[in-house]
Amino acid sequence: MTLNDRLNRDHPREEPKVGRPVELHPDVEKAIVDCLILCAQYHYPMRRKELQTFVQAYCTENSVVTRY
């Protein structure tokens, strides 16, 4: 019955988000991904520790408060 109701509704109910909440705005995350891709294109792929340092520096400079 529940599945039938959800399938026949004009506006399906918004599903609850799963997983941990995001720390950075999606635009900032996209910019970081673009930076990673650009670095890789110039044959300088970032390692995990370098990426963590990069994001930490961004958060520090822009006063972004995180759980970590």
- Low-confidence blocks of residues: none
The level of helicity is 40-55%
- C-alpha Rg, in Å? 19 Å
Output the number of helix runs.
3
* Shape type: elongated
What number is the mean pLDDT? 84
In angstroms, what separates the terminal alpha carbons? 43 Å
Largest sheet: none
Please report the total strand number as a whole number: 0
SSE order = HHH
Question: Which structural category fits the helices and strands?
Answer: mainly alpha
Our estimate of the beta-strand percent is under 5%
Descriptive notes:
The protein has helices at 2-8, 26-41, 48-61. The protein is an all-alpha fold and 68 residues long. The protein has a domain at 35-68. The mean pLDDT is 84.
Keywords:
68 residues; mainly alpha
Write a compact overview of the structure shown:
The chain is mainly α. It has three helices and no strands. Helices cover 54% and strands 0% of the residues.
Note the topology.
Blueprint: H1 2-8, H2 26-41, H3 48-61
